[in-house]
Amino acid sequence: MKKYSRPRFYGAEIFAALVFLCSMSAAFMYTLNRSVVLPTTCIMTALSFGVYMLFYALRKRRAFSFLAFIGCFTVSIFAFSVLNGISSISPIDYLFKASEFYDDFMAGAFISIFSFIIGFSTAYFNVYLPRPAFLLLPAFIPLLLAAKTSDGLPAEYVVFMAVGYALVLLGVSRPEFPSENVYFDDKKSRFERLGALGIFGLIIAVTIYSVPRSDETPLGEYLDTVFNRNANLYGGNGLRNPNSQSGVNRGDNDPSENIMFYAEADHPAILSDWSFDIYTESGSWRRDPDLTTGWSGWQTYKKTLSAQALFSKLYNGVKNGYLSDYREILEDISYPSHDYDKDRSPRSQTMKIYVVSGGNTRLIIHPNKTVGVNISGYDERVFRTLTDDMFTEKDFGTNAQYTLEYYSSTPSPELITLFEYVDMEEILTAAENEGVITTTEKEAFLNERTQALEYHELMLTEPISPRIAALANEITEGLTSEYAKAAAIEQWFGEAGFVYDLNFIPEETTAEYFLFESKRGICTDFAAASTLLLRAANIPTKYGTGFLLKEENRNAYGVYAVKAANAHAFSMSYIEGYGWLEVDGTRYVEVAEEEDGDTLLPLIILIAAIVLGVLAFIFRNEISEAVFAVSVKFRSENKKIRAVYLRTRKLACRIAEKDPRSTTSAEVCGIIANSLSLKTQAEEITSCADKLFYNNTVSPCADKLYKDYREIVKMKKKMRK
Prior knowledge:
Mean pLDDT is about 75; it is low at about 1-5, about 175-185, about 210-240 and about 335-345. About 50% of the residues lie in helices and about 10% in strands. α8 (about 185-210) runs antiparallel to α20 (about 600-620) and α17 packs across α19 (about 525-535). The chain starts with 7 loop residues before the first strand and ends with a helix. By secondary structure, it is α+β, with helices and mostly antiparallel strands.
């Protein structure tokens, strides 16, 4: 019998490994450094491939290479901890708020760490110990991060990863055994690898599917459409709403942390995208098709609609001896100097929007009172509808950036108070005749009022429930101005004990059920109810959707990371003397307490169960051996001999692909001797078993037999490497 020699391995295909590492790097960098994904992907690909080639060169010195990996990885972690101490950004925030901001130091640290992980794991499971299913483990990390924090990976990235995995699977190293060695890779081993591959794939699918994503927010049904680069949402110069109806609250909502875009602004605000007009029996809202056409050239017109600027000119007109019929009223109103620059002109503000979800649309997300839009790299027209929806003539590019100019959305109480006592058209006509304001300014305010009143009359053709109308009269009783009525309705939700509850499951989706029965719901419920109440109070109002900027979403650089969870619904009411004003029914209500862990606990249990199941499947032989090692110590001598022989026979039959029930002890001895070069150990086990089975003689060598069996198991493992 020749001395045993280890099996040799053909080297893995280098090009296949390079493609796989490149696809992995692209997926990692898309989640962590999306704004500079191309250069960082190239850097990480080069670094991870260098790590792979280093360990590929050391493939014949496995122990040394493993120690080298531990050393390098430890140094990287140490450097990372030092960096954490001097960085203004938390590594956890940078990792789990993917693409929210970019930092050179953090990017470099994570590139180094992940490059070591995927470079070494690719070399280890592709060359050292070919287990292709395990190569899904590093791929699992960017998939999970992307799905949970960055609105998922685009299809092309997923396809790229699949291609990379397929190539590395085909190019994996293969064992070559000496000709005198009869052990070979049997069918069961192949089934094990396929099973592990399927289980890891299931883990990824279940986890990605289980990641919370809000489908019941006002925008939940079409957020992906809005930011879909292939979407064709508009036709010609007119707007076609991507959804025929708004969303409704069906309960048990789970806000998603997927980032839609970034907003650079000085203060929190409500951003609008779409408005809806007609209330349906199901509780949702749809657009009036006659209000979907937009027009260009609106910027000049809108810039004249500054309530503060109008009040300033009227006030200064009185000071200069004009508008004598209105002198007493105007002089009694306090001048709001804090809302003006030194030159007495109204302050405008700017906001920058950065789309980061790969979208290429014509939608302009904007704050109220927007008077100008400047889209980087776009020279075509921007249209605006009568209901203030804004869109462009052509797609303005993937991940667009644009700047918005807008006036403060703080209402002008002075101007609102003024129009409680005087007729708007009369005072504006007098101001025009005396040169206090221009004809353009007068016509702009009167046209806005006319359009709002016409809109109101058109919407009132849809009857409002008598119960809602009676409630509106009750809330606004004794109030005369539209502003006071709107404020009363907004505050009433808080006074009447309404609760904002994401997890409440309503029996019905109608506004009546929400107002008179449940009094619990989300922003869509409050917006629908307030819109109907405001219309019943004879105030022109539309149902609006958009996003709510919150301070908690503002990062270290002063930029708001606007997520799907920030999607919001609200009412927009026309207030004479101010214009359209947001009315948010959720502003004063109580928020239901969240039950910590209830949402994530089922997911955690599911993932833990799957992981434990996978580990039990992968290491079932090791677990079985551990259980056998413990149990054999408590058996009698004859039972020990019987158990050791039966396990040895089972192991031998796996190697030779034979049926254990028809295999003799002599055949078992021959298989072990020829396959594993352990003739002495095989003879000791089989001879003791023969004495027990045929002569009923118990040998005092049971403990020695277990040691022989362990040597056989170890040798089999070596042969399978």
